[in-house]
Amino acid sequence: MAEKPQIQLFVKASEDGESVGHCPFCQRLFMVLLLKGVPFTLTTVDVKRFPSLVPRYRESSLAGNDIFHKFSTFIKNPVPAQDEALQRSLLRALLKLDEYLSAPLEYELAHDPHLRASQRRFLDGDQLTLADCNLLPKLNIIQVVCQHYCRFGIPKDLRGVWRYLNGASETKEFKYTCPNSEEVVQAYRSVVRSPQ
């Protein structure tokens, strides 16, 4: 007889490093598993024992924060007459992100005051941060879904965005956690309006 798969839920630990801490996302998952009666083990993680993933620059946390909302509005739009305007809105948000990724950050200018275009790999520098963990999965979905259902993707002339995506695809953190494109396509099949 096959053994039931066991779920392990890792949640942020409280200040004492052992009991459940204050994280609404962890609490949500904890509650859902309990409500569904799913067997699982709970492990608290003392995040103070690990390096900080918070970006140095506040702007890095805000970069691209409206892109997924604009994508969702566009891709779920039931009114064909609005498609063009909603697509332009999404493209403007991507352009704004590209401008942020292309502009040198303070630390880059400290090394080279004449630098005109950023060479960093990620939002805040050359190391992934929480801001990247938030934005990269969304950008991947946008690229896959728009390319498949709308026959357009993130424009190739947005060099900063593509440098960012290509840099991410070289990291194990992104590569190993990225779903198969077909999985993303299937997940959006029921929400994308059929072409008229």
Description of the molecule:
By secondary structure, this protein is mostly helical. 49% of the residues lie in helices and 6% in strands. The chain has 9 helices and 2 strands, in the order βαβαααααααα. A two-stranded parallel sheet has the order 1-2. Helix 1 links the parallel strand 1 and strand 2 (40-45). The termini are far apart.
Brief characterization of the structure:
Helix content is 49%, strand content 6%.
Beta-strand residue percentage: 5-15%
Sketch the topology as an H/E string, one letter per element.
Answer: EHEHHHHHHHH
How does the major sheet shape up? 2 strands, parallel
Mean pLDDT: 93
Distance between the termini: 50 Å
Category by helix and strand content: mainly alpha
Query: Which stretches of 5+ consecutive residues score pLDDT under 50?
Result: none
Total strands? 2
Number of helices: 9
Provide the spatial order of strands within the biggest beta sheet. Answer: 1-2
Tell me, briefly, the overall form. Answer: globular
Q: Indicate the percent of residues in helices.
A: 40-55%
Radius of gyration: 20 Å
Structural descriptors:
196 residues; mainly alpha; 2 strands; 6% strand; globular
Break the fold down into its secondary structure elements and pairings.
Elements: E1 7-12, H1 24-36, E2 40-45, H2 58-62, H3 67-75, H4 83-102, H5 106-111, H6 130-150, H7 159-169, H8 172-175, H9 181-188
Parallel strand pairs: 1-2
Helix pairs in contact: 3-4, 3-6, 4-7, 6-9
